[in-house]
């Protein structure tokens, strides 16, 4: 009787464990290598600066004086992809997107050189007095998204940010590799990125539109394309939180 009771207890323990233990398919490569573009080794930095309301105009002026000098300096392996103020979303906010050609070594080279740059040191000190808070993320670009290249304006930009459930990045990539085809007709797709350092399991999609009504029309048109509704249906459960920012580019932004 004791042996039978022990066997039943072992089976029950095994059954209970099966409810909570998730089997994971073995992978031979990191998610970043499976999802990112292989033909480039670019690393992106996305910066969010929350500016004191009374300082936003001075902040923009200072950035427009200093940032192009870094962007245009041939000895710095980096490029300013875009710089904006948030119009709808978190107010009095500046958003900057940088590309580092050559990945982490390029990032380290730029940071090392900027520490020796007296003008940039003064810029950071002056800028710091204008900020309430700031954060940044290091990103890679999805292999199936457009390369973010300069474009003429005027445009408004939407940055849609998704906090995914941990472990779902591959699923997201698989669905959006198909979904992006539905959003290319009006040249609105600018770039798609996923985080490597900072807040993890973050995805950012960057879109450009002529105005808010054009945005509305383009997004509504997608629902009339067979297959778009199914892809939305399967990706929504992967999301924990999402946020939309409508942004206006500064004069120095390559994305106008």
Sequence-ordered SSE layout with sheet pairings:
Layout: H1 2-20, H2 31-35, E1 43-51, H3 56-72, E2 78-88, E3 93-100, H4 104-115, H5 118-128, E4 131-141, E5 156-164, H6 169-179, E6 189-197, E7 202-209, H7 212-222, H8 228-235, E8 239-249
Antiparallel strand pairs: 1-3, 1-4, 2-3, 2-8, 4-6, 5-7, 5-8, 6-7
Structural commentary:
- This protein has 256 residues and is an alpha+beta fold.
- The chain has a single domain (42-249), classed as Alpha-Beta Plaits.
- Helix content is 37%, strand content 30%.
- It has 8 helices and 8 strands.
- The protein has helices at 2-20, 31-35, 56-72, 104-115, 118-128, 169-179, 212-222, 228-235, and strands at residues 43-51, 78-88, 93-100, 131-141, 156-164, 189-197, 202-209, 239-249.
- Strands 1-3-2-8-5-7-6-4 form an 8-stranded antiparallel beta barrel.
- Strand 2 (78-88) and strand 3 (93-100) form a beta hairpin.
- Helix 3 runs antiparallel to helix 5 and helix 6 runs antiparallel to helix 8.
- The chain is globular, with a radius of gyration of 22 Å.
- The protein starts with a helix and ends in a 7-residue tail after the last strand.
- 23% of the residues are buried.
- Mean pLDDT is 89; it is low at 15-24.
């Amino acid at each position: 009787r004791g042996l039978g009771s022990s066997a039943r207890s072992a089976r029950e323990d095994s059954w209970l464990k099966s409810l909570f233990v998730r089997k994971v398919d073995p992978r031979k490569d990191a998610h970043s290598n499976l999802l990112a573009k292989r033909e480039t080794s670019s690393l992106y930095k996305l910066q969010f600066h929350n500016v004191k309301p009374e300082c936003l105009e001075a902040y923009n002026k200072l950035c427009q004086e200093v940032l192009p000098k870094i962007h245009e300096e041939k000895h710095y392996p980096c490029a300013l992809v875009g710089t904006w103020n948030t119009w709808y979303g978190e107010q009095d906010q500046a958003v900057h997107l940088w590309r580092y050609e050559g990945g982490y070594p390029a990032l380290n080279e730029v940071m090392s050189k900027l520490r020796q740059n007296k003008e940039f040191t003064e810029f950071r000190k002056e800028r710091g007095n204008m900020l309430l808070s700031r954060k940044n993320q290091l990103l890679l670009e999805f292999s199936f998204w457009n390369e973010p290249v300069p474009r003429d304006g005027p445009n408004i930009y939407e940055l849609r940010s998704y906090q995914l459930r941990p472990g779902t990045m591959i699923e997201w990539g698989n669905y959006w590799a198909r979904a992006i085809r539905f959003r290319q007709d009006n040249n609105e797709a600018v770039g798609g990125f996923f985080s490597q350092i900072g807040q993890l399991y973050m995805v950012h999609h960057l879109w450009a539109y002529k105005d808010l009504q054009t945005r509305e029309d383009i997004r509504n048109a997608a629902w009339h394309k067979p297959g778009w509704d199914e892809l939305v249906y399967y990706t929504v459960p992967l999301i924990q939180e999402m946020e939309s920012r409508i942004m206006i580019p500064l004069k120095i932004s390559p994305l106008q």
